[in-house]
Design brief:
The structure is a homodimer. By secondary structure, chain A is mostly helical. Chain A has a single domain (23-211), classed as Orthogonal Bundle (Tetracycline Repressor, domain 2), CATH 1.10.357. Chain A is 69% helix and 0% strand. Chain A has helices spanning 23-46, 53-60, 64-70, 74-79, 87-94, 102-117, 121-133, 135-160, 168-189, 196-211. Chain A is globular and about 50 Å long. Chain A starts with 22 loop residues before the first helix and ends with a helix. Mean pLDDT of chain A is 83; it is low at 1-23. The A-B interface holds A 1-6, 101-103, 132, 135-136, 138-139, 142-143, 145-146, 149, 167-168, 170-172, 174-175, 177-182, 185-186, 202-203, 206-207, 209-211, 213 and B 1-6, 101-103, 132, 135-136, 138-139, 141-143, 145-146, 149, 167-168, 170-172, 174-175, 177-182, 185-186, 202-203, 206-207, 209-211, 213. Chain A binds a DNA duplex through helix 3.
Chain lengths: 213, 213
DNA sequence: AAATGCACTCTATGGGTAATAGTGCAATCC
DNA sequence: GGATTGCACTATTACCCATAGAGTGCATTT
């Protein structure tokens, strides 16, 4: 359990629910990502309330007003955007692929999303610290993540044709999310510098071995 | 991810790590439980900072000073104590029982602990609300829970003879905790008034069906 | 032995104010 | 033509300080 919030380092622009990152969007995404990296650095060095949007704007090289074109609030600038779901990956999932087994396919989708984040352990630790020191930000991070995974629950219910009150979407997402969080803790605590995707895969494998023992 | 904190309603005194509830301890536990119920009621009605320890003491019928004999802080009085692990249940677990399969046995232990809580849905919802409105309390609740489950991780590593850096204890606990939290959400949201243990069992069954599909 | 009264220390909260986040619109720039 | 920006404004939050209340230790009472 744990009150681990999703930690996005190097997050990507949240596009419309399902979209392909392209041309203008790509440039926008890269710009927003740069804002977030700087915002996270400033938050780590000075605290969340220790830097102003003016300072962030200066550090990024845009106007303060423009920052609000990328992010609705200062908190969102620091948290960044959650990884987008690429259209092809989602179509595969909807078509009950790649394996036909829900938990496995959800794990594949999660791996894909995790690959889009590619955090460094120091970044995860730093952002964890910022969150710990700012319960407001943690609450917001968790609310955002909850909305994000709610979308996956809906996709699951639809793919599997579950009834509206079926608890399996919630359970499936809860299990995969718990593995993600467990892996994130290992990643942040680890000293061996393996990529996060590798640690997630190892965590999934450990869960599988526990289930099939 | 959820930021669901453990919600203890009708919590039991946190005894020494492994102990049997008896005589004097039972009376102490009942008294502490009464304090927590009143504290939770006051927090729900007035907010966490909207009642004083003096008021809580008056409502319970003890002196303010005595409250601190039961709980180290006001927050702890509201959160209550986490359920104790009964000695017999722990001995069974340590002896690799009841089934010999770690995840199943951990689920049995969790069911036992959940049985000791027996919350009502209104209580869960009320306490969730208090936590939402008081990030400080939520942070504390989560830190306590993290310590609590760390103990189970140690028990698992010992029971299974895992190496110190083996990730399986963390994964096993993460999965069971995610099922607990998922069940808690269903319980708080539900309108059919089934006991929490039943909903947890249903959640475990759903996870099992997803794994074996 | 546990509860309690009491006096004290420490910390967090409340209120007022100023700083900053957030907003809308028009002008400018690429 | 769309994005950026400047600007003036509104709304909200952080900061500061004093006070209330949480927390503490000890002696007395039950």
């Amino acid at each position: 359990m744990g009150n681990s919030a999703i930690l996005s380092s190097r997050p990507v622009v949240t596009p419309p629910p399902v979209s392909v990152v392209a041309g203008r969007s790509r440039r926008r995404h890269d710009a927003a990502r740069a804002v977030t990296l700087v915002a996270q650095r400033l938050a780590t060095e000075h605290g969340l309330d220790g830097f102003t949007m003016e300072q962030l704007a200066d550090a990024v090289g845009v106007s303060r007003r423009t920052l609000f074109n990328y992010f609705p609030t200062k908190d969102d600038a620091v948290l960044g955007e959650l990884p987008p779901v690429e259209e092809r990956a989602l179509e595969t999932f909807r078509a009950r692929g790649p394996s036909g087994r829900l938990l496995l396919d959800l794990g594949v989708l999660a791996t894909h999303l995790i690959g889009a984040i590619s955090p460094e352990p120091e970044e995860v630790r730093a952002l964890q610290l910022v969150l710990e020191r700012n319960p407001r930000l943690m609450v917001k991070a968790n609310a955002r993540f909850e909305d994000y995974v709610a979308g996956f629950r809906r996709e699951i219910a639809e793919r599997e044709g579950y009834a509206a009150d079926d608890i399996r979407p919630r359970v499936a997402v809860a299990v995969v999310v718990s593995l993600y969080e467990s892996a994130l803790k290992e990643f942040a605590a680890g000293s061996d510098r393996r990529p996060f995707t590798e640690i997630f895969a190892e965590t999934v494998a450990a869960a599988r071995s526990l289930v099939h023992e």
